[in-house]
Description:
Mean pLDDT: 92
Number of domains: 2
CATH class of the largest domain: Alpha Beta
Number of helices: 15
CATH architecture of the largest domain: Alpha-Beta Horseshoe
Oligomer: single chain
Distance between the termini: 11 Å
Amino acid sequence: MSSKLVNKYNVAGPRYTSYPTVPYWDDSTFSLNKWKASLKKSFEESNEKEGISLYIHLPFCESLCTFCGCNKRITKRHEVESPYINAVLKEWRLYCELLGEKPKIKELHLGGGTPTFFSPANLTQLIKGIIEKGSVADDHEFSFEGHPNNTTKEHLQALYDVGFRRVSFGVQDYNLTVQKAIHRVQPFENVKRATEQARDIGYTSVGHDIIFGLPFQTLEHVKHTILKTKELLPDRLAFYSYAHVPWIKGNGQRGFDESDLPSPELKREQYETGKELLAEVGYREIGMDHFALTSDSLYQSMIEGELHRNFMGYTASKTQAMIGLGVSSISDSWYGFAQNVKKIEDYYRLLSEGLLPVYRGHILNKEDLIIRKHILNLMCQFKTSWNNDYLYFEELPQVLQKLQEMEVDGLLKINSNRIAVTTKGYPFVRNICMAFDLLLQRKKPETQLFSMTI
């Protein structure tokens, strides 16, 4: 990767798990009633055909990982588990009452925080309570994020027994110096144990999350982590850039100095080297920063053109409606977004009043829906087109003009009614999407809102 290109395109930009991106949501035109109407419309259009997705945020962690920008509550008091599960189930009941008929659950993902902070019995109670109010699709995919240090065989078995077949373990890096800097010390033996136990129980997809660009992380550290990963050969990998966003209140990313972070050139070298090592043993690049073996459903969905991206990241199948349960969770009806309150106390209070705990959102207009489709195409397929009136928009000529320099740099090809990202351009897909981001173009942020793209 040319250092000239890295320097040229290394700017702050969104990861595009949505469009519009959260900082550009229009709260002035949003209301809880509008959100409910958009979700009900989406549900009526899609539930019978494809079902819905559920994301459940479990925010508790016993210790703070300083690389993490997620919403979490640090505590060692496990008596917080039951009240939180009861609140999530109450929120789910409110949504089921709104929808009016049993939702067909196609996808369900437990994220955090640390989902395995919760006991196996409490996780079982949670999932059974969710399923009781709906039905489970025949081709469902249930997944959860596991911490290798505290994911027990009992956790894995309990979740397997209620339908889970995919688990993702947060590895980050195997070097002790890096692990200490990010306050996430976990030996390779713990990851190996958890991975092998999951496979022995019958999980069909085991994933690992690996991060490059961490504090004190060298190229040799990344090589070492990838080589250790090859020993376990997880079915899929998230191999992504550390997002340094210390300005987000309370995320803990001030435990080290920015001078401790690798340079943009080194980060790109870490990525390219890691990608080469992964390719040697059969991993294929999926969208942005994801890799999978050809036997994994994520690879199959990419080949079949069904890869989807939402607030849960890349998924192997699409559902039009996604409901987020728990503090800070984001829901997506395709026509609108809604985010829950971030403080647990506010979450409990609103639910006790019989209210959905939503505090902000965005209802998409016609232009938003068109741009969203283009960005989704680019992020999932590395191409998009406008060969019909639905996908054409008034400012498209200006967007293409912005992309001409990227075409000169060999990052994409522009034809009469389509563009295609080149292999050379894959690492810069966020920059390409930014050219389509009309809201970002119209109102450049005065302060940094996003992590760097490279």
